[in-house]
Amino acid sequence: MNSKWTLVTASILAVSAGVWMHGSLRAKEERVREEWELVEILVAAEDVEEGEEMRGRQMVVAEMPGRFVSQSMVRPAHADTIAGQRVVVPLRKGDPILWSHFRNATEEGRLSERILQRTRAVTVNVTEKSSVGGFVQPNDHVDVLATFRDPGSQEMVTVTLLHNVIVLATGSAADREGGWGRGYSDVSLLVLPEEAELLVLAQEMGNITLVLRHPDEVDTERNRGRATVETLLTGERSRALERMRRETVQVIRGSRAANALE
């Protein structure tokens, strides 16, 4: 009798183990199948360079096994969200498009938070030529030159309007790490309210040009005069400035050589 119940018990346990094992294997199979199920993501349809705006034609839907898809990858449903945003790293054809490839304007912080009290931010229009080939970037220091026709003499003149001005933003880039490089058409400067008035008036009268300067140079006291057509034609001012430039460059080179010998 005992042997019979032992056999029945063993049979039940064996069946239970078989059922459990079958269920476990089936669940594992389902998990594996889910991991390898294809999921749609967005990939670059063509090369996209750093600073370019992402266009619809530059995105294409591709499939990837689910186990390799993460939350950082952009799904087709969010194509409209990234359209028009600029990429902060270059993309190559076929690269998966990630959310980290873009910088949302809200992540950069409000530009107003970068403005010191009793100062103002003012934007001036620039071209590649008037922004040192597009190399002017946020946090750089610049001099602002204005070129216009003198209302009294009707002569074209260029004057250094402002000295040692800090660049707050170029286009929509408000920090050096997030800058989009060249390709902007306006620059925002940190100035006094009265200087903002001068800049606005100068833009109405003529053209603005930015000149890059060393951030540690604080010399703004010397009266530089102004460049006119007459000084340009006579060359007198050019010769005087040439002598000054040679002396300045020699001083800089001499100091660098002394530092190198130390």
Question: What's the gist of this structure?
Answer:
The chain has helices at residues 2-35, 79-82, 193-205, 229-234, 236-261; strands spanning 38-44, 59-65, 120-125, 141-149, 156-170, 186-191, 206-213, 226-228.
Structure description:
The chain has 262 residues and is of the alpha+beta class. It folds into 2 domains: 38-102, Antifreeze-like/N-acetylneuraminic acid synthase C-terminal domain (Type Iii Antifreeze Protein Isoform Hplc 12); 116-244, no CATH class. It is 32% helix and 23% strand. The protein is built from 5 helices and 8 strands. It has helices at residues 2-35, 79-82, 193-205, 229-234, 236-261, and strands at residues 38-44, 59-65, 120-125, 141-149, 156-170, 186-191, 206-213, 226-228. Strands 3, 4, 5, 6, 7 and 8 form a 6-stranded antiparallel beta sheet that branches. It has a two-stranded antiparallel sheet with strand order 1-2. The longest helix has 34 residues, at 2-35. Mean pLDDT is 75; it is low at 175-181 and 255-262.
Rg measurement, Å? 33 Å
Alpha-beta classification = alpha+beta
How many domains? The number is 2
Give the biggest sheet: 6 strands, antiparallel
Separation of the first and last Cα atoms: 103 Å
Mean of the pLDDT scores?
A: 75
Please indicate the percent range of residues in DSSP E strands (runs of 2 or more).
Answer: 15-25%
Shape: rod-shaped
Q: What's the number of extended β-strand segments?
A: 8
State the share of residues found in helices, binned by percent.
25-40%
Stretches where pLDDT falls below 50 for ≥5 residues?
Answer: 175-181, 255-262
Query: How do the SSEs run, as a string of H and E?
Result: HEEHEEEEHEEHH
Number of helices: 5
